[in-house]
Structure formats: C-alpha cells, structure tokens
Design goal:
This protein is mostly helical. It is built from 5 helices and no strands. 60% of the residues lie in helices and 0% in strands. Helix 3 runs antiparallel to helix 5. The protein is globular, with a radius of gyration of 13 Å. The two termini are 16 Å apart.
C-alpha cells in the first residue's frame, strides 16, 4: 500500500484501528487503544453489523475476519470502549492476533474496495 489516499474514511479507520490493536508498535498507547476500540465499536459498529461495509469499505474476503475481530473485541471490552486499554493489556492476545490478520488482508486488498 504505497499511496496514502483512501477511498473511504471507514476503511482508513478500520485499517488504523487494526494496526493499533494488533500491537505492531509495541504494547500500545492507552489513548490510541481506546480510540481504536471506540472507533470499531461505536463508529463502525463492527460488533453489531460487521458486514454493513462489504462492497463499499470492506472487501468480501475481509468480512469474516472483521466479524471475528468485532466479536473478540466485544468479549474483551464490552460496551465500554473507554476501559479498553486496561482490558486489552490484560487479556488481548487473541484480539491482537485477529487484528494482525485483518491488517495483513487489508494490505493485500489495498486502500480501495469496489
């Protein structure tokens, strides 16, 4: 993904949140972990309806992974994304793995869908 132009802000936010939650830059800054969790739960509603973006900002082959990420994030954080930093630090290994897988898939698919 060489260009920094995103077709949709939702795809950009999903990618950035995935990178943050994957822990690729260390354990993660609590403020960014909170932002990522809030973005996925509240803004993108990944837990409630992860397939809503298929065809516009979510590729078909990303949908199952996004769904898995939403379910795992909800299991760890619940309806309180503001507690995400502490909860993910304590019990986030599975979440980090799923987020990593989604980021890798998104990098293969690129910045635009559809």
């Amino acid at each position: 993904m060489k260009t920094y132009v995103w077709k949709s802000p939702e795809r950009r936010d999903l990618y950035l949140a995935g990178r943050i939650l994957s822990g690729e830059n260390g354990d993660g800054d609590g403020d960014w972990v909170q932002w990522a969790s809030d973005t996925l739960i509240q803004d993108l509603e990944l837990y409630e309806d992860p397939r809503q973006g298929v065809g516009s900002w979510l590729a078909v082959d990303e949908a199952d992974i996004a769904n898995e990420l939403g379910v795992c994030l909800w299991r760890v954080v619940g309806a309180d994304p503001f507690s995400a930093a502490d909860k993910i630090a304590a019990d986030g290994a599975a979440l980090r793995s799923i987020a990593s897988e989604l980021v890798e898939r998104m990098e293969v698919n690129g910045r635009a869908v559809g």
